[in-house]
Amino acid sequence: MIKTILGDITKVTDVEAIVNAANNLLLGGGGVDGAIHKVAGPELLKECRTLHGCETGEAKITKAYNLPCDYVIHTVGPIWYGGSHNEEELLANCYYNSMKLAMEHGIRKIAFSSISTGVYHFPVEKAAHIALETVSQFLKEHTNDFDLVEWVLFDSHTQSVYEAELKKFM
Ligand code: ADP
């Protein structure tokens, strides 16, 4: 099942893993990354320090500490420079690599944030299309491995864009 919800990803209780829109250093930051580290507590930063960063488009996994889920998958979305710097492929890689890592850990229920559409300024319509296309293709190739993929969106405009895109893939 794929769905979108309006809310705070640090509060979702129906998934085993949440996907953080992190940065290359993996040492916390603003936006959703800051919110996740704040709720998870300082142990998360301690574990992140052992990972030595993450390349754009790649994903790494940690425990979730004080968050209500089991794992945090940290993926680094591309900064939008106008579209000619491989941004679309890099964002697709974020979703593909996060799903792959989840599957390798037996995670069947996963919640994504809207990667790259905050301070990284990726246009929401394009990002939502890439997100839904990449994940629905992954689910087609791994039909029995997931029970739930959801996007937890922080504002109603972003949610309406993802919801419209979701309808195209249902
Ligand atoms: P990026 O640097 O990848 O653009 P941001 O954290 O700036 O990441 O923004 C990504 C999206 O996450 C934005 O839509 C932002 O509104 C949203 N966001 C911020 N805080 C939260 C939260 N607590 N839960 C879910 N989404 C959030």
Please tag this protein with its features.
alpha/beta, Leucine Aminopeptidase, subunit E, domain 1, 170 residues, single chain, Macro_dom-like, 5 helices, 40% helix, binds adenosine-5'-diphosphate, Macro_dom, six-stranded mixed β-sheet, O-acetyl-ADP-ribose deacetylase
- Global mean pLDDT: 98
CATH level 1 class label: Alpha Beta
Question: What is the helix tally?
Answer: 5
Radius of gyration: 14 Å
Q: Which runs of at least 5 residues are low in confidence (pLDDT < 50)?
A: none
Beta-strand content:
15-25%
CATH fold group? Leucine Aminopeptidase, subunit E, domain 1
Number of beta-strand segments: 6
Residues in helices, as a percent range: 40-55%
Describe the secondary structure blueprint for this structure.
Blueprint: E1 2-6, E2 17-22, H1 31-40, H2 42-49, E3 59-63, E4 71-76, H3 87-104, E5 109-112, H4 124-141, E6 148-153, H5 156-169
Helix pairs in contact: 3-4, 4-5
Pfam family, one: Macro
InterPro entries: Macro_dom (IPR002589), Macro_dom-like (IPR043472)
Organism: Catenibacterium faecis
